[in-house]
Amino acid sequence: MKRIIANSGLILLMLAGLTSEAQVPPTKATKVKSPAFMEIDSLAQPAPTGDVSPQAAKEQKPEPAVATNAAPIPGATLNGYVADDKYKLRIGDKVSLQILEDRDAPRSLVVTDSGELDVPYIGRVMAADRTCKQLAESLKSQLEKEYYYRATVVIALDAANKLLGRIYVWGQVRNQGPIDLGVNENLTVGKAILRAGGFADFANKKKVKVVRGGGANGSGKQTFELNMVEILERGKPETDVALEPDDLIIVPSRLISF
Questions:
Q1: Residue 198: is its pLDDT beyond 90?
Q2: 82-159 CATH pick, 3.40.50.300, 3.30.1950.10, 3.10.20.90, 3.30.300.20
């Protein structure tokens, strides 16, 4: 009988425990969030701060950076080059010549005493009394006839000859011979005679001649006769003559009477 009572008590205790468990509200299961994924493009853009509309955020997208280590474009330094079409080349001028298709450094050339340039592939070409633009166009045409499908010729003046030419003094002066005529120099007959050392003892100062040649055949030849007594001794320089390259000054001898 005691065993039955003990078992009955144990059963009652188990039923009481089950009843208490049934009265406890079930705990709410925690919902597991799925992993979040973001687009790569969104990581590259700064997140908008504050009350920024999507349109405003789009406008805040930074501009792509411009590369600063890009290789220079060949020939870019010549974009601003304009061939000289005013100055006419003279003997002694130094020029640089470059054919861009060759990709070589510019060549330094000098206008020879004959007025020519020694041009690669072509040979001697007349350059005196022609502008850099005229000469470049002429060389381009000649090169494209035989050597190039397309030739880009660049000619630039490096250094102009400071001497425009020479004049010559002959006759009754202290020092006969050539006298250099500088660029933009106003050299007159009176100044040239003084530069030649002045008149000699038997000079005919009243009949000094200036001979100006007009070409190889003598066409256009001019002769001036000047009274240098009026110009140098009586102070009338307005009657003096400005000299040009290759002018010849002749100072004759005066007649000697005993």
A1: yes
A2: 3.30.1950.10
